[in-house]
Amino acid sequence: MYADYMASFRENMKKFLDAGTIVDIEVGLGPAGEMRYPSYPQSQGWVFPGIGEFICYDKYLEADFKAAAAKAGHPEWELPDDAGEYNDTPEKTQFFKDNGTYLTEKGKFFLSWYSNKLIKHGDKILDEANKVFLGCRVQLAIKISGIHWWYRVPNHAAELTAGYYNLDDRDGYRTIARMLTRHHASMNFTCAEMRDSEQSEEAKSAPEELVQQVLSAGWREGLHVACENALGRYDATAYNTILRNARPKGINKNGPPEHKLFGFTYLRLSNELLEGQNYATFQTFVEKMHANLGHDPSVDPVAPLERSKPEMPIEMILKAAQPKLEPFPFDKNTDLPVKDHTDVGDEVLVAPV
User: Fold this and answer.
1) Could you confirm whether 91 is annotated as catalytic?
2) pLDDT class for 239, splitting at 50, 70, 90?
3) pLDDT given for residue 349 in this prediction
4) Which residues are annotated as active site (predicted)?
């Protein structure tokens, strides 16, 4: 069904693809277009900062897990029955509490199986997308969800239920990044505007550290890394956080920064954005994102999409998980800040470089 839909898209959008109007194809791999399990659905009563639930209890995934457990020599292992419900906190569950099930042999086996299914899903769909858009001047991309709540506790419960097997000693995002390398795909991450200080203490959130980890994982694997904001913001603090994440060590006067975002998606176009000072501040933000430089006509267009490389064994992908390396350093603040609205009345919007 994915392949049929994408083939139809290519056919119906041919003139835009040929003209270079569409240069980026973000492939939806789960809820909200994100590569994750639907572990925290508000439609089912989930409320922030609930840990969510593992989504694997249908008969097909249950049979798959039982077969995998039997192959590993443990036919007696069942899917977790101690991981709580959508709105639990980690310490209320046997699975996520200190020294809980997630640290046992059985728990580690389950989490590997659960997260590997997600990686294989993304790999399979991206291979179909690559075949459909082969030769088009586009880049494939996926979006990873910014699950920043419970990041500060050892169990990372909300990330685990979503399928991101990320712990203090295991990198659950670099494995995804490594899978993407075979498809010439970029990685798009969210919550780029968030500051730790803006989050509630009870949620143990750390969006800044999470962004730093995920972007570093993508850069280490040689990917183009992009970002977007999670919530609608029109203030200088949010814009300056995005600018810091776009160029973590600021402007390099001798050439491009060693690490920088490949692209940024601003959410979202609305009447509120276009009102008075909000739009003036946004214009300044766009200019700063392009380092106050005008359009460079020498920048090459997107190259024709090449065929995906041969399938990568899951064992090779999982080698990216450990050891978990320290993220690249990020400055505390951007070196090209957007000033408060009182100082931006004469700013001009320039073309992207």
Assistant:
1) no
2) very high
3) 36
4) 34 (proton donor), 228 (proton acceptor)
Facing residues of 228 across strands?
A: 265
Question: Among residues 209, 63, 228, which one has the least CA distance to residue 150?
Answer: 209
Confidence at residue 315, expressed as pLDDT on a 0 to 100 scale: 97
Task: Flag whether 94 is in a domain.
Answer: yes
What is the number of domains present in the chain? 1
Task: Give pTM, 2 decimals.
Answer: 0.94
Residues above pLDDT 70, as percent of the chain: 96
Which residues form the domain of 211? 24-319
CATH number reported for the structural domain that contains residue 279 in this entry: 3.20.20.80
Residue 344 lies in a domain: no
In whole angstroms, give the CA distance from residue 227 to residue 239.
Answer: 13
Structure confidence by residue, pLDDT tens digits, 295-330: 777 777 789 999 999 999 999 999 999 999 999 999
Asked whether residue 127 is assigned to any structural domain, the reply reads yes
Write out pLDDT tens, residues 127-155.
999 999 999 999 999 999 999 999 999 99
Q: What pLDDT is attached to residue 341?
A: 61
pLDDT number for residue 209: 98
Does residue 228 have an active-site annotation? Answer: yes
Q: Which residue among 34, 193, 208, 221 is the active-site one?
A: 34
Of 128, 208, 228, 287, the active-site residue reads: 228
Band (208; pLDDT cuts 50, 70, 90): very high
